[in-house]
User: What shape does this take?
Amino acid sequence: MKRAAGSVSPTGLLFAAIGGAGLALPFVTFRENRIVLGEGVAAWAAVPPGAAAFCIAAILGGLIIGLATDRPWPRFGGSLVGLAGLLALLSASAEALLADALDLARVAPGAGVWMLLLALTLLMADALSALKPGPSARAAILVVLLGALAAVLASGLLADISTMQEYRARAASFRAETIRHLWLAFGSLGAAALIGFPLGILCHRRASLRAATLPTLSLLQTIPSLAMFGIMIPILGWVGATVPGARSLGIAGIGFAPAFVALLLYSLLPVVSNTVAGLDAVPRAAQEAARGMGMTVAQRLRTVELPLALPVMLAGIRIVLVQNIGLAVIAGLIGGGGYGTFVFQGLNQTATDLILLGALPTVLLAIVAGVVMDILVDATRKIPEESA
Amino acid sequence: MIEIDALTKIYGETRAVDAVSMTVETSSITAIVGTSGSGKTTLLRMVNRLVEPSSGEVRINGERTADMAPYKLRRRIGYAIQGHGLFPHHSVGRNIGAVPRLLGWSKKDIRARVDELLELFGMEPDAFRDRFPHELSGGQQQRVGVARALASRPDLMLMDEPFGALDPIIRARAQEDLRRIQRQLGSTIMLVTHDMDEAIRLGDRVAVMDGGKLVQYAPPEEIVSRPASDFVAEMVGDNERPIRLLALIPVADAMEEGNAEGPAVAATASLRDALAMGLWSARDALPVERDGEVVGRVTMDAIRARAERPE
Assistant: This one.
């Protein structure tokens, strides 16, 4: 898509508008301690004028590149320049504001930082998607970006930011809850796959089973998540109290088990329905030919039906994974652990920084899981969609 | 030899196939023709037990198919269907080698057989072996489908409207190819079609089905010249009967001594071709050639005599 020189990129205009609004809004919030209401500080207010001008110029430069061209590589470069400027300004602001403040004072990213971060990452995502990278290139990009994020966090540039201070106070429990969260999300997914794939295959073969199963699973899906976790408490509490040996397995009304079961129930519909849909989409003639040439039921499943259904089945897994990573936060409410622990602690203490300590890794995890699953779906799609 | 003995399929109240008996000779093509709902496809699918017969039996070289495990039976019988049914995620080579792989052939044997079949169907093995079905034209896909059905040198090949999805020109080529390859390999083929032209052109014998019953089973000449019922006559088509008859007779059969002017017609061509040539060039007689030499002539009178209703 080429336009005459001097015209602007429509997406670039949107990103620049978001970024411009971000620069006008308070950049960071300064607070006397972690729970009082803070006051907003503008982007140019905290840092010496020269340094501020340099950083703001980098941010504006990135946004303007996005505005001026449709070519993906310059836009990607622009987003990197802008993000570097944003990072430097945030780091410098926090350091400057805390330099002559009391020990308990906090600096948190304000609306301005979040808006600029949104504008610049949208610009980056837009540029990357315009490059149309293949599965392996996407994997490489993901690794590089995650590596860059890890390097920034390890460098200490953001050490003065409030959420990082919350993290330092809870490093050990953060690691434990991360593992808990992963267990909840991936464990329930694994169990759902173990139950859902065979159930999906059976539903594909028997219309009567399908007619009974899919509406039941849909019904489960409509139960609000808080209610679902609530329902699990008496049910598993009863199981833990009456079934011999259940309690020693850790099954009780609160804690990990009810959260796990609730997530599992939510996972079943996407897994089963995508398995059925994937198998339904296998060309009739190919199935007929497989039967006619003398493949057994198992051979047909292994060499024809499952390979052709795999991309759709993996798309179901993707839905479940992203959904479960988000939903697992609610486990924190019933003592199931995970990032939800920080979110609900933070809510109780009205400590926004602590809420973010739970929320930000959840969002990041969900995004990464989504991208990885998309890569897998594409890598298993051996034939173009139109001929499948 | 394939013996079909009082084969019957009943769905609820309907007799989809009603006590059909016929014998298919080895190394011949039997074309089963009928309107939709005549039971022709059900009959075919009972041979490899994709449909289980309600009663009656099928014997292949004397062996009762009912005594074999269905999947083992099917591995001995080639099966080609309308819309080819190739596996979209497997290469051409893997598609053709599917049945030999099921039978446990060695990799080397499978590869050699795949290349042999691709050659046979006029597709350069190095160019086509590793392509995927969606990278082929409709005609090529259909050829790969037939090649796959022939891969394990089956006792019998079943074809269900194999050319149904092809346009007329490619279809005619595919029919000629099948005829040539069948002669070359000596395959036994049962083929279902709704198209009487195709049945007459390909069949050594033609089986006409109507309402689940076999109404006539005879060589094509007989179907055209002596239809057993009004239904068969209608299938053949009154206006086309003389032309169809001529299409079945080689020029050599009506040849006489003597000479004629103008371009020659091949002795192996049909009388229909000779008639067309004569009409178009307004000649009363055409020279006949065999292997590039003129060996006699065929007159328009002789052609006309062959197109008359038989006694």
